[in-house]
Structures are given as C-alpha cells and as structure tokens.
C-alpha cells in the first residue's frame, strides 16, 4: 500500500524502494510477489529505467505467466529499448490471454511497422550530411578523427600477444564500438555531428543496473 501511495503521488523513486522492501520480506505468495514486481517495473519505467523495468516484468511473468499487466509492461519496455521483435513476441503472448486488449493490439501493430528499420541518425544512416566526408575517408579513419576531436582515449582489452598500439587507432571505426547488451546498441553519429553512446549505469547500493541505448554526448 505504501508503494502504491508513492506511485499515485508520482514519487517513483520511493515507490521503487517500498516495493523492494515488500519483496525482501518474501511472503512466499507468488501471486503477490508478481504484483509487487509488476508495480516496481511500472515505477522504474516512469523513471526511465527501462532495463530494470524489463527485468522486473520478466520475473513477474515467470511467477505468474498469465499476469497481463506484467506482459504489457514488458512489451512497453522492449518498445522503448527498440527491441521490436521481442516486443511483438510479448504482445502476441498477451493477446493469447486476451485477444481484445487494446494496448497490446495497438503496440503489436506499431512494433511490426518499426521492425527492421534502422535507428534514425545511425552512423551508416542516409539522413546525415556527412556522405561526402565518408567518401573521402574510410569508416575507420573517420571514427579516429571523431574521437581525436573529442580527446577521447580508449583502453583496449589486453591480448596474449604484445602488439604495437601507437598506430592501432587508425583501424578503429565507430561501428566497432558496441555494447554487450542484447540490444546490440552502437555509437551513433547524429545529423548535427555529435555522438550518442550506449551507457550502462550501476547502482550498487540498490543492486540495480540500467542501460541507456543512446546517451547524447552533451547530456549533463
């Protein structure tokens, strides 16, 4: 109840904490735990913590496979994370439970429309105004130039063999920078020449993580 009150007041941070406390008590009721996880997923979602919200929705669905609110929340998270194939799968799973659920019907159509499209403004996209620059320089060279302009230094994982690294950056391209997330997010070159990076946030005190697909380099 406390978490619900915080949620109604749009105090989503405290709502997350309250739902987490309820889960820590481990009442042993799978149905109640599924509700708490779904509610915490909703709070995380409103905070923009889509990865954390998705994890909660997944756990809630495991506890109660027919919990429609958890399925809807999970589908919404996949939409925000640009996982359109997964969003479709979640929508179809929910529609097997309720074929007339409006949110799922509409989301399924939207996800199907967006599936397969590249994110706007990607490095290889056609909407940037850097086509002439790409023709003059290889992608590897261009990636190096963009990083040097920003004074960004990379730390490469060590290999078993010693290698010269002074000229190594000449072989780097932006589409080589990607996360290990299931989203396969990469560094994007936006139309204005700025970069957006995939970023993983760690919250050790809460034992939570969150993943942002595109974090603009000028964000503060």
Global shape: globular
**What composes the largest sheet?**
3 strands, antiparallel
- Provide the spatial order of strands within the biggest beta sheet: 1-2-3
**Which CATH class of the largest domain applies here?**
Mainly Alpha
Structure overview:
Helix 1 (2-8) runs antiparallel to helix 2. The longest helix is centred in the first third of the chain and has 17 residues, at 30-46. By secondary structure, the chain is mainly alpha-helical. Mean pLDDT is 78; it is low at 161-173. Helix content is 49%, strand content 9%. A hairpin with a 5-residue loop joins strand 1 and strand 2.
Comma- or semicolon-separated keywords:
220 residues; three-stranded antiparallel beta sheet
């Amino acid at each position: 109840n406390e978490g619900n009150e915080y949620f109604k007041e749009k105090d989503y941070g405290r709502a997350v904490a309250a739902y987490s406390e309820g889960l820590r008590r481990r009442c042993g009721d799978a149905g109640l735990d599924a509700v708490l996880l779904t509610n915490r997923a909703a709070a995380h979602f409103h905070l923009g913590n889509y990865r954390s919200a998705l994890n909660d929705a997944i756990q809630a669905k495991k506890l109660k496979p027919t919990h429609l609110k958890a399925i809807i929340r999970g589908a919404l998270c996949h939409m925000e994370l640009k996982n359109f194939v997964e969003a479709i799968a979640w929508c179809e799973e929910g529609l097997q439970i309720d074929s007339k659920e409006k949110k799922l019907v509409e989301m399924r159509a939207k996800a199907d429309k967006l599936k397969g499209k590249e994110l706007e403004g990607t490095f290889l996209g056609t909407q940037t105004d850097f086509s002439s620059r790409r023709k003059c320089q290889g992608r590897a060279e261009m990636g190096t130039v963009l990083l040097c302009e920003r004074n960004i230094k990379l730390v490469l994982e060590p290999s078993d063999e010693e290698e010269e690294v002074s000229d190594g950056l000449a072989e780097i391209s932006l589409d080589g920078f990607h996360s290990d997330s299931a989203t396969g997010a990469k560094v994007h070159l936006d139309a204005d020449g700025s970069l957006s990076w995939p970023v993983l946030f760690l919250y050790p005190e809460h034992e939570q993580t969150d993943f942002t697909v595109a974090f603009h380099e000028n964000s503060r």
